[in-house]
Amino acid sequence: MRPVPALKRKVCGRFTLAARPQDLQQEFPDFWFPSDLPPRYNIAPSQQTLVLPGDGAFQARSMRWGLVPAWARDPAIGNRMINARSETVLERPAFRSAFRKRRCLVCADGFYEWQGSPPRRRPFHITLPGGVPFAMAGIWEEWPSPEAENLSTFALLTTRANPDLRAIHDRMPVILGPEARPVWLDPTRPPDALLDLLVPFPGRLELRAVSRFVNRPGNEGPECLAAAES
DNA sequence: CCAGACGTTGTT
DNA sequence: GTCTGG
DNA sequence: CCAGACGTTGTT
DNA sequence: GTCTGG
To answer: Residue A88 to residues A93, A147, A182, A195: CA-CA distances in angstroms?
Structure first.
């Protein structure tokens, strides 16, 4: 008998990065950050956001969320390549090469998950205690655009939800603590050592129901974190 | 050998 | 790029 | 992830 | 319903 598929709901598709550059500098002291970083409360797929690639430059870069494989004909394919399952990332043709050679950290200070079924689906904002910035595990690609400069894109690694999150969701982005980050970014690390890092977050998470204002991808600003209407 | 395809998420 | 199908 | 669009003809 | 765009 085939294994019964686990309960599945939708996975990380929005997040926040409202932290100031000095807060990021403190959390990621090895990296250089731009000083003019705008606070973001509604980062959606296809948008640019701050990524720390393991390319040895230790320079924060802006990349587009939604991985476009190097061989893609149409970069629109990236709009659906926003998450890569940890369980299968090693085999998937679209991700395998990026997983082996181009890993990164994706800076965030919270992410959104939606709970329930339409039309009552409600967004939650999930943070670490105190709202400190954290690093999500990512992989990235460079797509040679015929007209413009290369397009840099990334996908987030996902794993099972941890106990705090399980009430609303069964998947979550992989969050890497300070010890795991250099391992993930080390280009010489073998796949087995990397896969060991892709586990549910072992610490506590804080969940807060927020307004549906965040639903609309074009909405931006601290209103995205307003308490949920009753 | 060449030609042609190549993907993910989720489906509560 | 890399794999499959013919 | 959610919101919003969703068409055709013909075109060196 | 399904796909694209943000």
So the answer is: 10, 33, 22, 10
**Residue A90 CB in 7 A reach of strand B:** no
Find which nucleotide's C1' atom is closest to A66's CA.
B8
Answer yes or no: is A122 CB < 7 A from strand B: no
> Is the complex ipTM more than 0.85?
no
State the 10-residue block means of pLDDT for chain A, 230 residues long: 33 92 97 95 94 95 93 87 89 89 95 85 95 96 84 92 90 95 93 92 96 94 92
Task: List bases, strand D, within 7 Å of protein CB.
Answer: 1-4
pTM, to two decimals: 0.91
Strands A122-127 and A48-53: unpaired
